Structure formats: structure tokens, C-alpha cells
Amino acid sequence: MKKIIKYVITDILRNKIVLAYTACLLAISFSVFSLEDNSTKGLLSLLNIILIIVPLISIIFSAIYIYNSAEFIELLVSQPLKRKAIWMSLFTGLATSLSIALLVGIGLPVCIYEFSITGIMMIVIGVFLTIIFTGIAMLAALQTRDKAKGIGITILLWLYFSILFDGLVLFLLFQFADYPLEKIMVGISALNPIDLGRILILLKMDVSALMGYTGAIFKNFFGTTTGISISFVILLLWVIVPVKISLNKFNKKDL
Amino acid sequence: MIVIENISKQFGKLKVLDNVSVTCETAKCIALIGPNGSGKTTLIKSILGMVMPDAGSISFNGKSIQNDWQYREYIGYMPQIGRYPDNMTIGQVIDMMKDIRHTSSGFDEDLIDAFGLKGMYNKRMRTLSGGTRQKVSASLAFLFNPKVLILDEPTAGLDPVSSEILKEKIITEIKKGKLVIITSHILSELDDLVSEVIYMQDGKLMFKKSIELLQKDTGESKLSKAIANVMINSIV
Question: Where are the domains of chain A?
Fold first, then answer.
């Protein structure tokens, strides 16, 4: 399995997009930190990059990579290799290279300008989102052989997680404004890793006061050690479940 | 060596394999013949575990191949259309396969030398012609000295010199006592190779006969004529 990971990572490095992605993240991070004299403000700007750009790049790049590796997969499947090893190597290779890009592109500047618990939390969430969306992309890419359709699905999934989901939640909140929904909101946020990440970071930034009563409830839950642990377990589930489902599908796939 | 029992496979509504059972013993050269779309490639891919049959079982050396992968160490496979990562060079592909797949009996680089692939090691797979791709596929199939060779249309797209080289190689491997399963539409080429014929039609296995028996039944000495006779008269 190590050998296949090695080939996947060399291949990803060879097409240079991940390197360009790292350079872009670096440029954005450094400019954000040097524009603002207050580095906490810089962190807040980076938050949006982490919550929107990182999932988008991870999901689309991974999906395209899986489609382009069709030949590579076909070649390996006829060899004495476990299908599980092939699929997990692809996942590990993609997740590792995209995570390293994030660690260098955002982690490094954050460590230089704002080495705090908030900064570290942001990097951790960023890595989680990278891995989660790589897994989701791999699952989506298995749904159809049609490349355009598969990449379309991943874009729709990203739209759903980063924009539509919040819209739906707001809609629900307004429709049921007369009911006490604050506690349910905590549960609903677990359904979207981006939301979960946003709440975890915002609460560390102490801007939860701006979120009113709901913010207070969130702080009550996510502020505690148990709350944080549960959130990370949920994030971990977001990593494992899509990958596990895609692995089962890949094991039964006809090539 | 390879025992296939009642396998069926359906792609959508199309029944590609319909209750196929066949046994392949070692030290034989078996020709898999049938019209286009008769399920030959699907049958081969099922043996390799690339296609999962809906029903039935396949065993290799007495062990079921389901959830097994090690048996593929004994198989060299040459696909009908060899597809390789576009941005890798010939050399990289061959080195990668050597790296991933261990062999105890040493590498068999006869075909790489005979086809002169070493001089093209720096060419990217994307730039290769169909024939050169076939040469790479053939070289990879023979590279690991496998006990079983599965060749899907091996000479399609090869020039006469190369296809003669490949044929010679196949004959030497058969003499070493290997099992060779070969599909081809160029029946005249199979004449001096095969010892048994499997004939498939519409996903069904019509018959498996030794070449002598087939010649006796049809009264033809040439394989191409014998098969034509079968197709016309539908003798089963």
C-alpha cells in the first residue's frame, strides 16, 4: 500500500496544481495578515477561506483526480493487489497532499502571525474539512462513470454544504420562530461539517456574544470539553463514513 | 486450474454471461472464440476479479477467488484495449509494475527487448500508437513469468513482425507447460497455437472441445473453416 501511495503522491505533485494551490493560500494568508494591523481580524478573514475555498478545492480536485485515475485503477485492479489497498492509497495520497498544502499555505502564516489556540483550532478544522471533502468527492465520483455528471454532483454537494444548508436552517428558524429551537440547532449543526467547523472556530474567537441567545446556548455546549470532544467525534465520523461507503462500493465495482 | 461454475452477469438489461461453467487445466492453450459481444471479455474479466459475477463461483487452484487477490500473482493479463496513465512514460509504467508486483522467478524481459521498447522508455503513454500500447501490454503480461496467461485479442493492432514475435513467445510459454487463454478473431493465427476451443454465443457457452475433436466433427482441418462451419450450421 505504501508503494501505491508513493505513486499517487508523485503523480499529484507532477501535475503542479497542488503546488499552485499552496502558493495561492500562502499569498492570501500573508497578504491578509499584513493588511490588518490586528492579527485576530486577519484570522477572521482566513476563516472564510477555510470554510469556503478549502472544501471547494478539495472536493473538485479529488473528484477530477479520481476520474483521471481510471486507467491507473484499471491497471492496478488486474494485478495482485487488494482493492481496498488501491482505494485507500488514492484516498490517503489525495488527503495527505491537500492537507500538506493547507498546512504550508495557511498553517505556516498562522503560526508566524497568530500562534494561539484559535489559530490552531482553525488549522485543525481546515485539515478536517480537507479530508472530509476528499472522502465525499471519492464517494461522488463512484456514483457515475460520466465525468461531467460526477463533477457536477460534487459542485452541487459543495453548494449544498456551504450555502444551501444555511439557507435551509434559516428558513426552518423563521418558520418555527415561536418554538425554542436553540437546542435542536446544536444537533442540526452536526449535519454539516462546515457549520460545525465554523461554530467551533467562532466560539474560540469569543465573538459568540454577537450571536445572541443561540450563541449562548452554543457556548454552553461547544464551550465545554465534552462538547468539543463530541464535535471532533462527529467530524471524525464525517471522515470515516463517506470513505467506508465508497470503499464498499469500489469493492463491488465492475471495471 | 481454473474452475468456473454457473456464473451469470447482467449489465442493466443485457445478459452478458448466462450460466457459464467451464474448467481450464494447466498446460493447455485454450482459444476463446465467439462473435462480438458474446461475453468473452466479461468472462476473462470475471476470472481476474475485475467484474463481479451476479451468480456462480470461480476458483483458482482449488481456492475461491472471491475476496482473494493473491491468486492474481499467477496471472499475466493482456487487456484488449490497454489503458495506462497518460502522463507516465513507458519506463515509468514498467518500473512501477515491477515495484508493485514481486516475483520469485525473476523478470522475463524477452518481449521488452524483442519489441525494442527500451529505446522508447522516455515516451509518454499518451503519445503512443495503438500498436505500441499493445506491445507494452504484452510485455507487462509476460514480465512476471506467470503460470497463467490471459490474452485478450493479443495481435490486434500489431504489425506482422511484432505479431510473429508475440506468437513465438506464446508458443515457448505453452511448451513450458503454462495455461494460456487467448481470444482472437484472426482464427488463422490460432491454428498452430491452440489445443482446445471454447465457443461462446450470446453469453452462453456453446461448447468446449479439443481441436482434434472439432476437426473430426466438422470435417475441416483449418480452425477458421471449422469455426465458420460451426457458425453456419450451429452445431453444438
Answer: 2-251
CA distance B128 to B126: 6
Interface touch B48/A78, C-beta < 8 Å: yes
Q: Does A254 touch chain B (CB under 8 A)?
A: yes
Consecutive 10-residue runs of chain A (255 residues): their mean pLDDT?
90 90 95 85 87 95 94 91 94 96 95 89 95 96 93 96 90 86 83 91 74 73 86 95 96 89
Contact residues, A window 57-76, toward B, CB-based 8 Å cutoff: 68-72, 74-76
CA pair distance A74, A168, nearest whole angstrom: 41
Report residue A238 as a C-alpha cell: 464525517
A175 Cβ under 8 Å from any chain B Cβ: no
In degrees and rounded to multiples of 5, residue A150 shows phi and psi of: -60, -45
CA–CA min distance B171, chain A (Å): 23
CATH number, domain containing residue B124: 3.40.50.300
Q: What is this model's ipTM? A: 0.88
Residue B100 structural domain: 2-233
